[in-house]
Amino acid sequence: MTNFEFRLCHLLIVLNGNRRLMRKVMNVDPNLILPYKKSLAQLASLLQLPTKKATSIFQKLHSSDMKRLTASYIHQNIVITNKHPLFPSHLKQIPDPPIVLYCKGDLSLLSQSPSLSVVGTRTPTSKAYPIMKNVLTPLIEQKCVIVSGMARGIDTFAHNITMEKGGRTIAVLAFGFNHCYPLENRGLMENLRRNQLLVSEYPPYIKPQKWHFPERNRLISGLSTGTLVIEAKERSGSLITVDQALEQGKDVYALPGDITSPMSVGCHRLIQQGAKLVQNSHDIEEDWL
After folding, report:
1. CATH T-level topology, domain 105-288
2. Which residue ranges traverse the bilayer (predicted)?
């Protein structure tokens, strides 16, 4: 890793992964040297922050503990910057692209295609799992990488079905590797770490926060050729991933369901708005497999 990449990782850790502040720095100093030379007042001015917040950042910036922490992540080979050859080129093209990715597992999955992101409700009906198994199995058998977010419900089903069928899957996390949410997925998370791939843009020590979940959705869609929605209420958080996919120019697919079920409303609305109705795997295969 180059000195520049070290500074990139270090500054993002100091800024707690705040990409907005990081881009302020990069716009002024693309080489990321000036922040280390500025006084507290100058740093506050550069970041346009009140003195109290700037002081905390200034102290972390010059803390030997923070530099050792950065070095430890690099030594563990869990961090890649947007300058790294393994960094997915398609993620560089999305709006608000990640600057750094933390990864544990098989990094080759980042460049494999095709890939399909699978999202949906955290409280699925009893019909969801068998339907997902029916639709996803042929795709998995054709080496399609399944991308999801390791959330309760549809995400968990997607990862488990893929591994059960001997396929490959990526979990994009809304927190750092030292944490797990939901807690009941600790076993799943470990299995994904050992045999598949975990990805996060948050340093390992960062705990899950509410805003992290919609924020990471752009990475779920960004890592995928298309996005499939399975069971979603009208205002489901899964629809945020759909918005991101559309903004990124990706294909969107939706599984229809029982017209009397609130879990079908989101998918039916997407179909009305132009998402492709999926009855079986062929509806997806014919587009890009």
Report:
1. Rossmann fold (3.40.50)
2. none
